[in-house]
Amino acid sequence: MGEMEQMKKEAEALKTQIEAARKAVHDTDMASAAAGVAPAPQVQLKTRKTLKGHLAKIYAMHWSTDNRLMVSASQDGKLLIWDSHSGNKVNAVPLKSSWVMTCAYAPSGNLVASGGLDNMCTVYNLKTPVIKTVKELDAHTGYLSCARFLSDTEILTSSGDTTCALWDLETGKQKTVFLNHVGDCMCLSLSPDMNSFVSGACDSLAKLWDVRDGQCKQTFQGHTSDINAISFIPSGNAIITGSDDCTCKMYDIRADQEVICYQDAALNSGVTSLALSTSGRLIFAGYDDFNCNIWDSLKGEKVGVLSGHDNRVSCTGVPEDGMCVCTGSWDSFLKIWN
Amino acid sequence: MVSKMSSKMVGSNNLAHARRMVQQLRVEASIERIKVSKASADLMRYCGEHAKYDPLLMGIPASENPFKDKKPCIIL
């Protein structure tokens, strides 16, 4: 038998083995296990602030770890830094390329990053007297879909070139490239212990990676279209994904499989973004239909909706202290709800 | 000759790709999995333990809400 034939046979055997192993531990699903848990209260949140300032669609937002400042990115060619308590703009960063798709705040609060159809991740220092570009990370051969700082010296990116990368911000070079997806990578989320991260892609798969050795550890299937949003649960043992197939799913890392699907026959819009409350009980998922739906993560039921935007909700974020949820939209506004 | 060379290159690329795929599947097949019942129980416990510290779940009193606009008091 030629080596190619052998490889194909072994691949099929391994896939069968993995499916059997997953089935062997599938003694229940999350919703059934949580049948006895008291339902989450119906969540009715009010808009506390509407942040006006962008002149075009907002594509991304990210909270600072100080729970007060946040950065947003719009295709008006700007990053805006907001004081969410007052609603005031603190800083404006003009972008070289207006085709921005992502933005990120460093945990220290010193740096922000942005990127998009320019295929680059640009890092800015907010603490110099005038905001300065400190690095242009240029090696991806496709658009930059997401960026997240590990520290002031390292950043993770995901790209339309199907790879993710860990960069050294002192040298501006890629330290590790994460290769395995066969579709555009659309989103990433760092684990609470920062040793691993998950990525979601247009191949409808989510993958778990070791940050240091670049190895893809696990692959999560189930979605039937692009995964646009992904987040670790605060415990670090599970992830939530949101997809163009109009559903969100929870995958448990240690059980290596989907344990619950968040869907509703009445919902036929893709999921663009998602964020979790601090206990992990509530999922805030932004949809193409202009709403953000709130799901009970354990029981799989919809427990609320945030309505108020006049266009697609493109980004959502909950700060570390969990005191609110922010939604950003193609209608050019950000809203703070609690 | 040129077409033979390119199909040979494509062939060896396919083989390299197949080897990588098998190697990846070996890694993924080798992990230990826990029962979904245990995974669910752990998550339920985590949510339960952290629920009382979750402002969006518990609600935020107006006096402690930094985002709520403070209305001025009117003395009648």
Automatic annotation (TrEMBL), chain A:
WD repeats lie at residues 51-92, 137-177, 178-219, 220-261, 306-338. One of its GO terms (biological process) is signal transduction. InterPro entries: G-protein_beta_1-5, WD40/YVTN_repeat-like_dom_sf, WD40_G-protein_beta-like, WD40_PAC1, WD40_repeat_CS, WD40_repeat_dom_sf, WD40_rpt. The keyword Repeat applies. Keywords: Repeat, Transducer, WD repeat. CDD domains: WD40. This is Guanine nucleotide-binding protein G(I)/G(S)/G(T) subunit beta-3-like. The keyword Methyltransferase does not apply. Belongs to the WD repeat G protein beta family. PROSITE patterns: WD_REPEATS_1, WD_REPEATS_2, WD_REPEATS_REGION. It comes from Carassius auratus (Goldfish).
Automatic annotation (TrEMBL), chain B:
SMART domains: G_gamma, GGL. Gene3D superfamilies: Transducin (heterotrimeric G protein), gamma chain (4.10.260.10). The keyword Lipoprotein applies. GO terms for cellular component: heterotrimeric G-protein complex. It is found in: Cell membrane. Signal peptide: none annotated. GO terms for molecular function: G-protein beta-subunit binding. GO terms for biological process: G protein-coupled receptor signaling pathway. Coiled coil: none annotated. Keywords: Cell membrane, Lipoprotein, Membrane, Methylation, Prenylation, Transducer. SUPFAM superfamilies: Transducin (heterotrimeric G protein), gamma chain. Its main location: membrane. It is a lipid-anchor. InterPro entries: G-protein_gamma, G-protein_gamma-like_dom, GGL_sf. Residues 11-76 form the G protein gamma domain. G proteins are composed of 3 units; alpha, beta and gamma. Belongs to the G protein gamma family. Guanine nucleotide-binding proteins (G proteins) are involved as a modulator or transducer in various transmembrane signaling systems. The beta and gamma chains are required for the GTPase activity, for replacement of GDP by GTP, and for G protein-effector interaction. This is Guanine nucleotide-binding protein subunit gamma.
